Amino acid sequence: MKAKKGFSKLSKQEKINWLSQHYFSDIDTANKLLKQYWNTDEKLQKLHDEFTENTITNYYLPYGIAPNFLINNKLFTIPMAIEESSVVAAASNAAKFWLDKGGFHTKVLGTEKVGQIHFTYTGKKQDLEDFFQQQQAYFKDSLTEITKNMQKRGGGINQISLVDKTSELEHYYQLHVTFETLDAMGANFINTCLEKLAKTFKETAINKQLCSKNNSLEIIMSILSNYVPNCLVRAEVAHPADKLLPNPEDSIKFAHKFIEAVKIAEIEPYRAVTHNKGIMNGIDAVVLATGNDFRAVEAGVHAYAARNGKYSSLTTAKIENNVFYFSIEIPLALGTVGGLTSLHPLVKFSLEMLGNPNAKELMQVIAVAGLAQNFAAVKSLTTTGIQEGHMKMHLLNILNQFEATKQEKLAITTLFKDKTVSHSGVVEALEKLRNENI
Ligand code: MEV
């Protein structure tokens, strides 16, 4: 097969034809499948086609809702886009568990975003520092054209600092820039500011003769950082340790075992990764449903989990004065304006469901989704084990895989109501049912 040049210029149908011919033995089935996932509403389909390049179809994820989340004394129903069968059920269970125990309490601890201009300078450090001190105000002013609207709303650039990284990499310095981007995630705003600043910085360095033949200053790149340790939110639940479960003795035992499980995730990276993965089940699902950038959130959150030099749990648990406390602290750079938020109909729908939150409010809802998910997972793990609930939810996937009819689904789910679900057990039961009905 030859490489295809100018692929992006082909029409959608031409792209599908090319793909089907080159990669699929059954061209018609491949064609049919792709079209099955198109939306019949042409305008809606066109909107999705234009989100990215070379779109040939849509990729569906289930969109579920988890009701009964009491957050700062207000009830929320949380939208979740996720394929893993037990996640929405687990979130709903955790929401219900905490509903009559005061619910979740949250606080935004900071909203600072970060961008950096990475450059090399071969001259004397002192000359660079003097130059930066003299020009700092000018650099900030030179961005007014881009920042003025954001500034009017109370945002903009907070600070520009020069950072010497030469002890780690020869000649390497940074301009480390902090931003307030209010309700926008701010990626475009930050990157536009940085690229303009880098240009001004270089031009001024030439004009002011900071660079010469022997002292070169080279901009390597200008880009936002997805590590935002000062764009931080905290969520917490608290309740008397002997009143978490109906029986006080069981309750205290449960609380201690739960705390031990969280402590294990604090000190053991193998466990911490899975512990945090469970948290991200909740976080990513809401991040996706609200049209935010889950890769950015993932990258930032995991970096934060390793901030002390060792990958650790994002949640902590303790008993103090007989009260059980369970909390999370995570960096979340989110937007409720810009990006997909006003474009994708389901994103608009999600935001409306959440009461059209601003970015700070959304940070709090999403932190709660992460904490709730972790509570549900650790509760299952330290009591019944995770497979019971997980496989119950997975049962339908197994039945669908074997194209079970409505009657078969009913018969098998009834059969497994009080039994442990396993893949082989379900297949066996289905075969038996089918043989009996021949
Ligand atoms: C599965 O998606 C997530 C869990 O493994 C999380 C955990 O172990 O805490 C259940």
UniProtKB/TrEMBL annotation:
Pfam family, one: HMG-CoA_red
Keywords, ordered alphabetically: NAD, Oxidoreductase
Entry EC number(s): 1.1.1.88
InterPro entries: HMG_CoA_Rdtase, HMG_CoA_Rdtase_bac-typ, HMG_CoA_Rdtase_cat_sf, HMG_CoA_Rdtase_NAD(P)-bd_sf, HMG_CoA_Rdtase_sub-bd_dom_sf
PROSITE patterns with a match to the protein in the record: HMG_COA_REDUCTASE_4
Keyword field contains Transmembrane helix: no
Gene3D superfamilies noted in UniProt: 1.10.8.660, 3-hydroxy-3-methylglutaryl-coenzyme A Reductase, Chain A, domain 2
Pathway this chain belongs to: Metabolic intermediate metabolism; (R)-mevalonate degradation; (S)-3-hydroxy-3-methylglutaryl-CoA from (R)-mevalonate: step 1/1
Top-level lineage group: Bacteria
Catalytic activity: (R)-mevalonate + 2 NAD(+) + CoA = (3S)-3-hydroxy-3-methylglutaryl-CoA + 2 NADH + 2 H(+)
GO annotation (BP), single: coenzyme A metabolic process
GO MF, one example: hydroxymethylglutaryl-CoA reductase (NADPH) activity
Transmembrane segments annotated in the record for this chain: none
NCBIfam families named among the record's database cross-references: HMG_CoA_R_NAD
Family, as annotated: Belongs to the HMG-CoA reductase family.
PANTHER family assigned to the protein according to its UniProt record, in alphabetical order: 3-HYDROXY-3-METHYLGLUTARYL-COENZYME A REDUCTASE
UniProt-recorded name of the protein: 3-hydroxy-3-methylglutaryl coenzyme A reductase
